[in-house]
Amino acid sequence: MTDPLDEARDKARRLRADIRSFHERVMPDDLKRKSHLHQVLGKDDYVRWMRLLNDQGWAIGHWPKEHGGQGWSLLERFTFEDELARLGCPWVIPFGVKYVGPVIYAFGSEAQKRRFLPRIATTEDFWAQGYSEPGAGSDLAALRTEAIRGEANEGDHYVVNGQKVWTTYAQWADWLFCLVKTARGEQAQKSISFVLIDMKSPGVTVKPIPTMDGYVHVNEVWLENVRVPAENLVGAEGEGWTYAKYLLKNERTAGALLGMACHALERLKALARENPSASPERTAGRIGELELRLLALEVASYQAVESMMRGTDHGGEASLIKLRGTELYQDIAEAAIDLLGLAGVAWDPAALHAASAPPLGPEDAGGIVKDHFYNRAATIFGGASEIQRNIVAKGVLGL
Amino acid sequence: MTDPLDEARDKARRLRADIRSFHERVMPDDLKRKSHLHQVLGKDDYVRWMRLLNDQGWAIGHWPKEHGGQGWSLLERFTFEDELARLGCPWVIPFGVKYVGPVIYAFGSEAQKRRFLPRIATTEDFWAQGYSEPGAGSDLAALRTEAIRGEANEGDHYVVNGQKVWTTYAQWADWLFCLVKTARGEQAQKSISFVLIDMKSPGVTVKPIPTMDGYVHVNEVWLENVRVPAENLVGAEGEGWTYAKYLLKNERTAGALLGMACHALERLKALARENPSASPERTAGRIGELELRLLALEVASYQAVESMMRGTDHGGEASLIKLRGTELYQDIAEAAIDLLGLAGVAWDPAALHAASAPPLGPEDAGGIVKDHFYNRAATIFGGASEIQRNIVAKGVLGL
Amino acid sequence: MNMDLETAGMLRDSASRYAADNYGFLQRHAVLTDPAGYSAKAWRDYAELGWLALRLPEAHGGLDADPLAVGALMEVVGSRLLMEPILASALIATGLLRSQGSAAQQAAWLPQLADGSVKLAFADAEPAGSSPCQVRAGRISGRKIAVLHGDIADRLIVSAADADHGGERRLFLVDARSDELEALRYRLVDGRGAANLHFAGVPAERLDPEDGTPAQAAVADVLDHATVASCAEALGIVRALVATTCEYLKIRKQFGRAIGTNQALQHRAVDMFLLQEEIAALTRAAQAALLLPVAERARIVSGAKAYVCTAARKVANEAVQMHGGLGITEELDVSHYFRRLMVNAALFGSRDEHFARFLAATTHSTPEGIPA
Amino acid sequence: MNMDLETAGMLRDSASRYAADNYGFLQRHAVLTDPAGYSAKAWRDYAELGWLALRLPEAHGGLDADPLAVGALMEVVGSRLLMEPILASALIATGLLRSQGSAAQQAAWLPQLADGSVKLAFADAEPAGSSPCQVRAGRISGRKIAVLHGDIADRLIVSAADADHGGERRLFLVDARSDELEALRYRLVDGRGAANLHFAGVPAERLDPEDGTPAQAAVADVLDHATVASCAEALGIVRALVATTCEYLKIRKQFGRAIGTNQALQHRAVDMFLLQEEIAALTRAAQAALLLPVAERARIVSGAKAYVCTAARKVANEAVQMHGGLGITEELDVSHYFRRLMVNAALFGSRDEHFARFLAATTHSTPEGIPA
Predict the structure, then answer these.
(1) What is the tally of structural domains in chain D?
(2) Considering B37, C330, D289, D306, which has the largest number of Cβ atoms within 10 A of its Cβ?
(3) Does any CB of chain C come closer than 8 Å to the CB of residue A3?
(4) Are residues C256 and C293 in the same domain?
């Protein structure tokens, strides 16, 4: 009996090989080096990276062919990010190509498609996501940012007031896709709309939130009487929640840190070889347990993807992958810090982003420390671990 | 500056030395052997054991001198049980000497004191505790056993109806001290009374609850129209909750498994020496972590006792000692099972209590397995771990 | 290299139905308290249902089932805690006979295994410090311990040094009722039987594989299969424990509401579920790995076993804990699952041994989680 | 062997008051962003408060404080994350000078330590693979790394082989501003400063203990004291984290109610609290153990450090997690406590090293938890 997934598996296998070859032959050395040392990438680096991917047809490989994509299966899509991460490549910035792009081609107007999709594919526009608000992190029903339809004499537009928070790379963004309340007093989920906001609009202020790695990844975005043309409403008013859920469903495997964990574990093993510790057996045992957890994550992740493709998933897979992946990744980072010893603490966060060599330890010590700091957020952002467990308890176990 | 606890510490140190000497010189070899092999003791064994202790003045060492005790400090009391357990001695059955005895001398009538206390000290009466009910384990407010004051023409008595559960060694008991409802509809805590029930009374039925170690430690006790003379009410009607709390406060350190954990860990280390495993480093590391937790438990326990004596305790100490002690003891047992390998599973629970040698492994393999089974209850009985955490969350952290 | 999803699914369904009807908790209780320690009737049923022919070659009327199908059956075995020697006889001993028996030996014994008239057990482990089992002039001497179902086996496959042929380690077939065989029979903590055996010159028939496969390789292969089968059994147990615990959380009331409304217990139930899903994924991956040569499968098979041991234990501990006092009683299935998992963990190599084998086999290259 | 509860209590109270008034989060922020990396004013205050004379002998006008009193101060240092070199100068270097300095050297330096006019740092660790530091003809050559507060120290105590006297390892006093000394100054992840030092023939004054105590023994003794002091600092941090987390759980609302009403978070807060209490108990026991000879204290001192490392990390991770996104920002104290604990864990020997020392010293006999 032929398994209907065989074809997807073959394609994914070929894609994986292509990515390796790309990494070896195409990826520029300076970008590889920065990425290898876990240095912070700037906007220029990321734009360059995204365009490199787009040159391969990969940045929007998961889009349908009619919109210029390759119509990847979920398995190819997962393999793509997994393999890039295993090779230690930079993050594939998702806000344009993965988040807002699909919402626009699925629900946007023809004009929106023409206007935005090409510039998303090429990262000519840098996008950010305006979901979380103070007091409404995991609880979107508590959103308070309001979009009031303007008076007739002011043209067809919304006036948006509110505050978004934890907005990744808003400092670089040209556009913000944003959940706003377009109606009051109604059932929360029926009052939310999905709008596209030009970051150059008057009234948009970005305030950085420095994190403990000494860098700015996230921001507050203040919206004060921001005029948003009505044509920038995606789909219908009050349907924002539906689109956000669609986006989320597309991104069921987004929390997977499998490839990153795999890469970090390889680095950890090299560290252990470089710095034989006072207790090599303990170190070997500790790394071995991480290795075993990685195996479990690996098989669970790929089987989850296949279940989703077969439609036999129970709905808890995304939470499983995220919970286990983030916990594992954090624990690998902790083990690396321990192995680094004094080199793991001898680095001013404010200097972590400089290209200079760290005062102690291997060349990538700073990058390892930086990642350890910022990745404490892995169990917080994108649906905190507590929320993931709530979801499974209610949605899968019926508790 | 002299520490006011110095005297108590000196006394406790002497008591510890006396106990060792007793264990070496006085304790009969057959009882020592049974206890060493973790065999199940019968009622005769326990009665003999309790009388041996009483001969030393220790069974009621914690009672005030006016009632025949030695007026032990909390530190002596804790040291007493700790040291016995470290030496692998049998359990000091608490229901008479520790639980009901103090309630009787504190709140009982003179007649009750004269009648019961001497027979408690010598274990002429074997006592059991009737607290838990089906549906009212940790939640005493849900008690349903009722005691109705009889009509005048039937004499001065209560008629008790209800069911108790998880009653330890009820199958041996002469007497049951029991929480019952003597009033309806009132605030739960004001409707509970503390009565003493003769187990030979008509209407008392004991039904064993076999546990997975193949033995009967606990029972259901059914009370059907049991006549309890009014003189067997302790103190005042409706004050049962107060007495139970008094008892509990006396027993704040009762959940401590420090000495047992210490003894089990010594046995585990010997097992590791006897059976060098496939991975001695892993075994050594695992045992080492248990050893470290034992150190933490040890210092936390003794400091908790001293805080209680100084009156500087925050109220969470008892929970801490119980939580950590039970978790540690269970983990030591699991490690022993793993070290025993096949010998740790080659033993029919129904045969665990026979004196014959086990089919595989060392002579005490059966005892180790039996303890592993029954001690899963350590985190359940006497205030489950979940309840302990609730208590600390509310009582200490104010959550 | 694809496994047959359809056969596995059908087997799972029919086995589940049979076990639900015939092996409920009380029905099993009767088996457990029977001195034989297993149900002869159930054993005949299994033969009729074809379970005992699962691993037989098609040439001998068997199903030649792949690891997925074997796993489907073993999950049901775990979910109802079947007491009969399916694993010991129909999987392990049958596997050894397939690999090590001559054509004539296979023809003689496989049909009797398939119809249930013969129960086989594999005697391998020897007590520390005793001289190794040896066959001389066709008679075997020595000691074996912890032979799973050795208490009720009709015949035994015994590993021993073949002194008649240069001392090579080979497998031998032995009559379990021989006069020269002394057995100490006992029950394991989960109620299944076992035996320690003392052979004092018992007539032994050497298994003679046509293709000359060394006995050691055959044993290693069959033990890998048994290891993965025990993972599937653990999965069946864990699924049962997670389901019964979630059910209990919904039913049991304390302080006036279902205890399952407490978020702390919800989150712990989720953690049990996550472990269940990981056990399922690793078991599935290990089943696929059994189609690979022994050297290439070691990492996943032993990794799975090591992870499953720890994960299943956590689930069992939590199931007992969340059931409160009931969890430790004989009267609830939870404690029986707990004990079966203990035995499972101790069979076919300890957690430490498999972990060491996993590590030794570990080198990272391509993702292995993609089922072949 | 009793420690002085009263002195410790008074010190704790006054230090807490001072730090609350002078070292709040924003006041500390100013110190953190100052290029010097510490507050010269605070340092003068500490001298006035007597903190810098804490370990000085009474003969030199010090308090000769016991480990309990030192711990009381260090708890406050942890609770407010003081940036000044109390540990490096007033405890470690002062301790070394007390033990290894001649009467004349003590008379010369101890008063300057007590009044804060000299900050000392101890340079001990050397980079892997470099030739060991050596003193020849009164001048020191070689490299030292990760010298805590080596960036701002006025003088250094340096360990080196004394080639002028047979190569014995001794301690030397060195001017940190010497021309022959090259320093790479940097900040640690918690904002405290450190330096890597390259000595190219720097004039060095040998410490000459009156009683001939070997330098190695003195260093081991002082490092035990420093280890226990770092446990007390960790305790101060952990108490702050537990308190701030419980507070946040009460204030922060989600889905219409305080997140602290969620039982799962309550239980996790309890687990943080339990760890705090264990850290407190072990720290207290380790303080008492410091009154014992070095050989007898190893088990408890290293056991405490090993346990505290792991326990404090768990608390910090949970504190960050329960604060959500805020937990990882610069703007909340939680992330600062997190980073200080990281540094703490790496100082004075790793968790693994202390665990190994604990195990090596472990033989069970009498309970050691009874404070002397």
Answers:
(1) 3
(2) D306
(3) yes
(4) yes
- Which residues on A lie below 8 Å from C364 (Cβ)? 262, 265-266
Element (H, E) at A56: none
Q: What is the pLDDT of residue B152?
A: 60
Low-confidence residues of chain C: pLDDT under 70:
1-2, 363-372
Final residue before a domain boundary, out of C206, C230, C259: C206
DSSP secondary structure, B6-44, as one string: HHHHHHHHHHHHHHHHHHHHTS-HHHHHHHHTTPPP-HH
Does C185 lie in the same domain as C231? no
Domain span at residue D357? 215-369
- Which of A251, A298, A327, A334 is catalytic? The answer is A251
**Exposed, middle or buried: residue D137 (CB in 10 Å: 0-12, 13-18, 19+)?**
exposed
* Chain B (251-280) residues lying within 8 Å, Cβ to Cβ, of chain C: 277-279
In order, the DSSP letters of A266-300 are HHHHHHHHHS--S-HHHHHHHHHHHHHHHHHHHHH
Tens of pLDDT, residues C176-188? 999 999 999 999 9
Is C352 found in the same domain as C258?
yes
The answer as to whether C97 is a domain residue is: no
Q: Which residue on chain D is closest to B298 by alpha carbon?
A: D369
Mutation target for B interface from D270, D291, D359, D362: give the one with most B CBs within 10 A: D270
A181-185, A291-295, B296-300: which has the minimum mean pLDDT? A181-185
Q: Where in chain A is CATH 1.10.540?
A: 6-92
D223 and D192 in one domain? Answer: no
Interface confidence, given as ipTM, is 0.95
According to CATH, what is the number of the domain B252-396? Answer: 1.20.140.10
How far apart, in whole angstroms, are the C-alpha atoms of residue A318 and residue A308?
A: 10
A251 is an active site residue: yes
| pLDDT of the residue at B280 | 87
The answer regarding whether domain A127-238 maps to CATH 1.10.287.110 reads: no
Encoded amino acid at A321, one letter = I
Task: Name the band, by pLDDT with cuts 50, 70 and 90, for residue B200.
Answer: very high
Q: Which residues of C touch A398 (CB under 8 A)?
A: 246, 250
* Measured CA distances, C222 to A147, C102, C122, C146, C225 (Å): 68, 17, 11, 18, 5
* Residue A351: closest C-alpha in chain D: D187
Contact pairs from chain B to chain C, CB under 8 Å: 121
Does the CB of C262 have a partner CB in chain D at under 8 Å?
yes
Check if the beta carbon of residue B142 is closer than 8 Å to that of residue B214: no
pLDDT: is D60 or A171 the higher one?
A171
Nearest Cβ partner for D371 among B266, B303, B316 = B303
Do residue D76 and residue D159 come from a single domain? no
Residues D229 and D184 in one domain: no
Q: Residue A252's pLDDT is what?
A: 80
Which of C125, C186, C329 shows the shortest C-beta gap to B212?
A: C329
Residue ranges, CATH 1.20.140.10, chain B: 252-396
Active site residues of B: 251
pLDDT for D54-94, tens place per residue?
999 888 888 899 999 999 999 999 999 999 999 999 999 99
**Residue A212: pLDDT band with limits 50, 70, 90:** very high
User: Quick check: is C90 in a domain?
Assistant: no
Cα separation, C221 vs C226, whole angstroms: 9
Residue C44 maps to which CATH number? 1.10.540.10
Residues D164 and D310 grouped into a single domain: no
pTM, entire model: 0.96
Q: Does domain B6-92 have CATH number 1.10.540?
A: yes
Reported confidence tier of residue D372, pLDDT bands at 50, 70, 90: very low
Helix (H) or strand (E) holding B147: strand B146-149
Find out whether C288 and C228 touch, Cβ atoms under 8 Å: no
Does residue D89 belong to any structural domain of this protein?
Answer: no
Least confident interval from A134-143, A263-272, D92-101, D166-175: A134-143
Which of A108-112, B87-91, B278-282, C329-333 bottoms out in mean pLDDT, i.e. has the lowest?
Answer: B278-282
B384 min Cα distance to partner chain C (Å): 8
Extract the tokens encoding C189.
């903590």
Please indicate, yes or no, whether residues D234 and D336 belong to a single structural domain of this protein: yes
